[in-house]
Task: structure prediction
Amino acid sequence: MAVAANTYRNYIDGAWVDSESGEQFEDTNPATGDLIGSFPRSTTADTDRAVAAAHQAYASWRLYPAPKRAEILFKVAELLRDRKPELTRTMTQEMGKVLTEAGGDVQEGIDMTYYMAGEGRRMFGQTVPAEMPDKFAMSVRQPLGVVAVITPFNFPMAIPTWKLMPALVTGNTAVFKPSGDVPLLAEMLVQIFEEAGLPKGVVNIVHGGGATVGQRLLEHPDVKIVTFTGSKETGIHVARTGADTLKRIHLELGGKNAIIVMDDADLDNAADGILWSAFGTSGQRCTAASRVVVHERVYDGLAARLVERAEALRIGNGLDPEVDVGPLINQAALDKVDRYTGIARDEGAEILTGGEHYTNGEKGFFYRPTIYGRVERDMRVATEEIFGPATALIPCRDLDDAIAISNRVEYGLSSAIYTDDVNAAFRAIRDLDTGITYINAGTIGAEIQLPFGGTKYTGNGHREAGTAALDTYTEWKAVYVDYSGKLQRAQIDNQPS
Result:
């Protein structure tokens, strides 16, 4: 059963409203081309109204007791849990990922919402000894104001909840601009906030393009935080633009993640982890394993296993429970992956399998899982993010060589190593320049209770998830309480000699 094609609206100040432009854009199923719905092509004026609503709501929401804010988030989590089957199926239709992966995406949103609801009764500060008698010293977290939440297509439920839930529980308000490729899931999430009783203006959604809605959010003086997940190039633009008004900028950008396979590794286990990391979500994950750095002594054995497993993957509409790999999100994404296959050939790499569009009567944006063989460490397919079902096998001599190859790219999100040598594992943990490292597992599968983010061009130092996420959406206030009843001068040499 297909999603009914409807016309949708923005949500501003607690009301569903049309864009002043009166224009719409279409949301289609990447596996079939079927129309899912029409969404408003919003303007800067629409964006200004949403920011004004969030700015006004902030005055009262920041004073709403944090445990009460948490109770609303807890209701949101329960509604997400109850509607998981519907949200899962809708995600597969709108974004393309297979049902099991879509269910995991929704579950991650559920988990994050429950987790951040728990922070409504924590959000710990510190109490520390004061240097003078009859004086108390502590620190507390405070919200900043309006948050612009700008999200990509590949995790339509997980990434918005990573951003919105810590922002809201800490007392901020939000204007949410989702990707134009997945507006329906964002709309459904905001409908759930509304049903859970979130006060008007606390969350607003404005659909539209980055050049209009996104750009205005970056420039608006009442937006205090911008949290953005997307490409490196756009992230740099976000940071530059936000600097003009000294916004806090949180960036989650690209990845060129490597799985190291040493000569003592269990090759079957490694092959399974590589296959899942490289081709899950059709490679459209910032944590996808687009490089495999494999010891030259086991290169041939691993390559044979990977080709055999990749060629057995079933491609098609993710609604079919027998399918392993769904479509790419759109034609531009498909063309980009195919262009890199041409680059690999031109650079002298082998195409071990895949490397072409998949049709077989399908209408969608399908590409065969692709493995580039005998890739040299400085080839473009070894250094540039592809964001599709393609991975490069790069031979290495030893552990030092493997770590050097892994670290030589401009990104530093996720890394992994397969080895039975505990000393090698701990050296990798220490020396791999990434925000996440897995031992004997692939590069994907982060859990919401630990910080998520990376180094170098992967971001700008902030983290999503875990308690670290609170740092993006709060600022510290130091508080001193002097109950001595007299002047006590700090930083003055008043100690007895």
Q: What stands out?
A: Residues 99-119 form the longest helix (21 residues). The chain has two domains: 6-253+459-478, 257-439. The longest strand covers residues 135-143.
